[in-house]
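Colleagues,

For the teaching module next term, I've prepared a clean inverse folding example: a structure given as tokens, and then the sequence designed for it. I'd like students to try predicting residues themselves before seeing the answer, so please don't circulate the second half yet.
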């Protein structure tokens, strides 16, 4: 009888323990009283968490983003701007960098996945990341394979589903333009035009595409820049651990992280409760019989090595309110829903409406305009 009891109870405990611990974690984390702090103390907390404001002027920009491998000059930046907006760098002369990274749309294209040469879509169904503040990132692309905006610029120019050119073809297109020949001479000191020079110029321009908003003002000491609700959201963002991944001046883009971190076991099937259905996963909910809840996460097929599936660059949250749809596959259109998903699947927390609203309010303070560096 005792053995039968163990055989019945033990599997049940194995199945239910992760769920119960998750619920306990949610309750303790979200119901532990948080000490009231002043706006000045919150500002210091944010700075201690690693957040920094973006540079206000060109001299500050140079201190932050000038690099020996690509010195920032105003002439080079202007050349890069011309190249960034030039559709002649694509195979059919219809697509520019700005086509997928529209500066008036938060630095992306508002689509789940970009549409490139001959209306081709990204074969991995990846969403176009914002170009705004991208130079602040440690990693570029969703898989983090590029470490600078200059290196990143080489990718879309050559991708067959984006601009579909070869380096040689890009160089030849640029050579055909007399204005470019003159500008390259002035910027690089000779009449030789190379693919590396082209991407360095584009990268130089992208290093100026930084934004400033009310969160920057708050970090700089304007304590009234954030409303009480926004301050509450910032404090929650820090306290529940969002800042562990969405870190630094860019509020993201600094690490590669598994997504999702938290997985829930199904009480019915002895496997993780996620099943692939093209670009959606279904969650087998424990608290209902076997009802299904759409979850927007694809295993994109180990496209960057056999162990890299479900590992992605943590995206920038600056201007996140302007860059829907969300996540690497662009399958979540609503910011509140994105916050709920991140709370549950990255932090293991069931955020309530008030908490989600507060975090969303804080994220609105990350909105900002492109800084005028007088170029």
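(Answer key — instructors only)
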């Amino acid at each position: 009888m005792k053995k039968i009891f163990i055989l019945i109870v033990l599997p049940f405990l194995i199945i239910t323990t992760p769920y119960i611990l998750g619920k306990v974690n949610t309750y303790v984390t979200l119901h532990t009283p948080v000490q009231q702090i002043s706006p000045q103390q919150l500002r210091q907390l944010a700075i201690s968490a690693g957040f920094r404001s973006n540079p206000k002027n060109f001299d500050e920009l140079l201190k932050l983003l000038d690099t020996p491998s690509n010195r920032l000059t105003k002439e080079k930046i202007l050349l890069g701007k011309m190249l960034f907006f030039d559709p002649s760098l694509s195979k059919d002369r219809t697509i520019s960098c700005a086509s997928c990274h529209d500066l008036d749309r938060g630095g992306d294209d508002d689509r789940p996945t970009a549409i490139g040469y001959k209306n081709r879509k990204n074969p991995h169904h990846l969403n176009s990341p914002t170009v705004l503040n991208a130079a602040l990132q440690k990693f570029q692309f969703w898989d983090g394979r590029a470490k600078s905006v200059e290196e990143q610029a080489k990718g879309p120019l050559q991708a067959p589903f984006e601009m579909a050119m070869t380096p040689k073809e890009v160089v030849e297109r640029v050579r055909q333009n007399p204005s470019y020949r003159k500008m390259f001479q002035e910027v690089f000191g000779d009449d030789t035009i190379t693919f590396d020079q082209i991407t360095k110029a584009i990268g130089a321009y992208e290093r100026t595409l930084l934004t400033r908003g009310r969160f920057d003002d708050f970090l700089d000491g304007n304590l009234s820049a954030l409303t009480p609700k926004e301050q509450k959201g910032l404090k929650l963002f820090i306290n529940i651990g969002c800042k562990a991944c969405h870190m630094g001046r860019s509020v993201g883009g600094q690490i590669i992280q598994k997504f999702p971190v938290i997985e829930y076991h199904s009480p019915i099937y002895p496997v993780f409760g996620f099943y692939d259905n093209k670009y959606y996963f279904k969650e087998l909910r424990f608290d209902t019989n076997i009802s299904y809840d759409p979850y927007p996460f694809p295993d994109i097929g180990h496209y960057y090595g056999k162990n890299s599936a479900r590992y992605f660059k943590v995206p920038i949250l600056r201007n996140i309110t302007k860059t829907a749809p969300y996540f690497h596959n662009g399958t979540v259109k609503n910011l509140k829903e994105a916050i709920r998903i991140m709370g549950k699947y990255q932090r293991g927390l069931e955020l309530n409406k008030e908490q989600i609203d507060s975090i969303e309010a804080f994220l609105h303070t990350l909105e900002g305009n492109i800084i005028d560096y007088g170029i």
